[in-house]
Structures are given as C-alpha cells and as structure tokens.
Write a structure and sequence with these properties.
Elements: H1 2-12, E1 22-26, E2 32-37, H2 52-59, E3 64-70, E4 73-78, H3 79-95, E5 103-107, H4 112-123, E6 127-131, H5 137-147, E7 151-154, H6 157-167, E8 175-178, H7 183-190, H8 196-204, E9 211-216, E10 226-230, H9 231-253, E11 258-261, H10 268-280, E12 283-286, H11 292-302, E13 306-309, H12 311-327, H13 331-352, H14 361-381, E14 388-391, H15 398-406, E15 410-413
Parallel strand pairs: 5-6, 5-7, 7-8, 11-12, 13-14, 14-15
Antiparallel strand pairs: 1-2, 3-4, 9-10
C-alpha cells in the first residue's frame, strides 16, 4: 500500500538530531541556560534577501515559484514574472517617496500581494513593518509612530479608516495605500518612469547587516516592542530551515515540495516560511484564513505536500472528522480508529527508536481497515498529498500527533 511505504520511508528519515545536534550551555551551577545548534548554512558575506527573486529569475526564469488564486483557480507565477512584478512595485514605491532605509508598514492578511510588497520594499532599499490586520487604532498609532513608517499599505477600506484615524494627530501622517483599491497596479503605473537601474542600484547596496524589518511584539506586558531583524537574520532562519527540512520533505513525498501558507505574515514564522520557500523554489500559495471550514476547500484545491500550522488546525481537522462520523452514526468507529492510530503510531515509532518490535499482525490489520475507513479521509481533508507538517505556537497533544502519524502525516513540533 502507498501509505504503508510512506510510513516506512518517513520513519527512516525522522531523526533530525543527526542533522542538527544541540549543544547545552550551562552556568556555574550546572543549570542549562541555552540550547543551541551550529548553523547548517554558512552566513552570506554579501547581498540580502532582496536578491532572492532576481537570483531565481536569472537561474530558472520559467520555474513556478508561487501559485496565485484568481477566480477560484491556482494560477502559476514563474520566477521571471515574480521578479518583474517586484521590480515594477519597487519603482512605484520609489516614485511615491520611499527613500533608502525608509519604512513601509503593511497591515493585511496573508495574501499574494503581501509577498510582492515585502520584496518590493526591500528591492527599493526600504524596511518592512508588519502590522496584524486585527490591530486596534491605538496599536496602529503606536507602531506607525514608533517605527517612523512614512508609508502604510492596508488591505481593506476598514483598515484604511483605522490607520487614518490612528495617525490623524501625527505631525506628518503617513501616506496610505490600499490593496483592495488596486494599490499594486497604481504603484506600477506611478513608477513607470523610474528606470530599472534605480531598483538595481538600491538593491545591490544592501548588505547582510542592513536592517530588513521591524517586527512588533504582541504587547502583552506593555506597549509592543519593535524587534529589529537584519537581512542576515532572515537568511539564517530561512536557509537553515531549508537545509534541515527540504531534503526530508522532498525525499519522503517523492514530489516537488509545495505548501499553502495561511499563517499571519505579521508573525516572523510565516515570513520565515515564505522566504524559505522562495529561496528553495518551493511552490507556495497564500490563503487569508486559518478557520478550518474556510481553509479545507483551499487545501483540497491547492494540494500541498507539507503544511506549517498551529495545534488548533490539527485539532479542528480531527474534531471535524469525528463530528462527520457522528452525523453518519459512525462515531464509535471513529473513536476506535483513533485508539488504533495511537497504539499503531506509538508501536511504529518505538521500532524506529529501537525500543520495541513494532506493530504486530493484528495491529497492522486494524490499521489497514481504518486506513480505508478513516485515515484516508483525513489525508483527503489536507489535499491528499500532504505527508509532513510543522506545528508550532503551543504543544501538540501526543495522542493527536500519533493519530496523524498513523494517518500517514508526520508532524514535527517547532519549539522556541
């Protein structure tokens, strides 16, 4: 069976410790103060993350690096087309008054245009300031004022109203553009007279030590604090993520890697995954909602090979499966499938870790039965091709992790 082969192949490739061995740093009393690993990728001596679209366009212009949802269809975006769009928007930002080192705040949900803006701001020599789309007027006022952002890109008319209200009393209110009002075409038209060479000059002036972005904390213990990240910081996160996981994901699925990104791009994890995908030319799509009822149709149509989410997503997928079974009068069968999955997953992993013999014939038979009745439906909910996932933000319940493992999906837990 295909899934049985996937499980065996996954088990052979789960030992990430061999690729990134942790080092414990202790104080004088022996208490652990830090856990760190040596980088898998040599830090760059020149350039910046702004170069990624242009490197891709030069090396593989026809490679599909993104897929954009238009009228319900996922349309391919090649490396050359993406670099061209980034250049056009960067020229518009320059024409609109963005100076080298200037800051542009972006208040929007996860969508294709966010990615274009991020790289366009960098290509124009600027710095991006992400703002959560759920931010209050007080939070927006503080972030714009504290960061010194002279330009703000919003997603909706509601966001625009929030920004204008929040910054009305600023000595110099920022210039505001709106995605839903067609800001990208407007910026492209505005920058038509700016030569491409101006973008190249600004982009090539960036170094690994140049500030790339200010990411603000949630502000749970006071005002949000801006965390300054350089292009070298972003490259280290993205490049090491690729080096650690991409060979595993690609080899285990036997397909070109792809993912649907629905994490907020105002959070650094979402940005890191986005940069990592473009760096490795992993096909990436965007979706603005993490609500399972809205996300599931997008997963089924995009069909990613791996996902990055939070425990809530996996909990809801599992709960939806149980609720569906209960509506059909098969709730007891689903519960048995869950128990079998936990036992099977634990036994399967114990064999890999040298702690046991693995599932016996009876457990294999029970797994095969429920793979037909339940587990394949779980895989279908995630698009049918997903074999790996990363869960972060909070701990994932062990039994839930084992359930997905038995369903043919290995979930790694990201820890801070």
């Amino acid at each position: 069976m295909g899934v049985r082969k996937d499980l065996k192949r996954a088990a052979r490739r789960t030992d990430l410790a061999a690729r990134a061995r942790p080092e414990l740093v202790r104080d004088g009393s022996g208490a652990v103060r830090e856990v760190r690993t040596a980088p898998l990728v040599t830090p760059p001596a020149t350039g910046s993350t702004a170069d990624i679209p242009f490197t891709n366009a030069a090396e593989a212009p026809d490679a599909v690096v993104l897929r954009r949802q238009v009228d319900g269809e996922w349309r391919p975006v090649t490396a050359a087309a993406f670099a061209g769009e980034v250049t056009a928007v960067a020229k518009g930002l320059i024409a609109g008054g963005l100076e080298p080192g200037g800051r542009v705040a972006v208040m929007a949900r996860t969508r294709y245009e966010w990615t274009v803006l991020d790289f366009a701001v960098w290509a124009a020599g600027g710095q991006t300031v992400p703002v959560y789309p759920t931010s209050s007027a007080d939070q927006v006022e503080w972030i714009v004022r504290d960061s010194g952002a002279r330009h703000v890109v919003t997603e909706t008319a509601e966001h625009t109203a929030t920004v204008r209200t929040a910054t009305a009393d600023h000595p110099e209110p920022p210039r505001v553009w709106e995605l839903d009002a067609g800001v990208l075409p407007d910026l492209t038209a505005l920058g038509a007279s700016v030569p491409d060479e101006e973008v190249t000059k600004r982009r090539t002036a960036l170094t690994p030590g140049t500030v790339a972005t200010l990411c603000y904390t949630s502000g749970t213990t006071g005002r949000p604090k801006g965390c300054v990240l350089t292009h070298a910081n972003l490259h280290a996160e993205a490049a090491n993520t690729v080096e650690l996981l991409h060979p595993i994901f690609k080899a285990a699925t036997g397909r070109a890697a792809s993912t649907l990104l629905f994490l907020p791009l105002a959070h650094i994890l979402g940005r890191t995954i986005q940069i990592a995908c473009l760096l490795a030319r992993i096909e990436i799509g965007h979706f603005p909602s993490i609500k399972p009822a809205e996300l599931r149709p997008a997963l089924k149509s995009f069909r990613p090979t791996f996902l990055v989410g939070v425990p809530y997503l996996f909990e809801k997928i599992h709960d939806t499966g149980r609720a569906t079974a209960e509506k059909l009068g098969r709730g007891a069968s689903f519960n048995r499938a869950h128990r079998v999955a936990v036992r099977f997953g634990a036994a399967h992993l114990d064999r890999f870790l040298g702690r046991g013999k693995g599932p016996g014939p009876g457990l294999w038979a029970a797994w095969a039965l429920y793979d037909l009745l339940v587990y394949r439906r779980v895989r279908k909910e995630l698009g049918g091709r997903t074999r790996y996932a990363i869960s972060g933000g909070s701990p994932l319940d062990r039994d839930l992790n084992l359930f997905f493992y038995a369903a043919g999906i290995m979930i790694y837990e990201a820890t801070a």
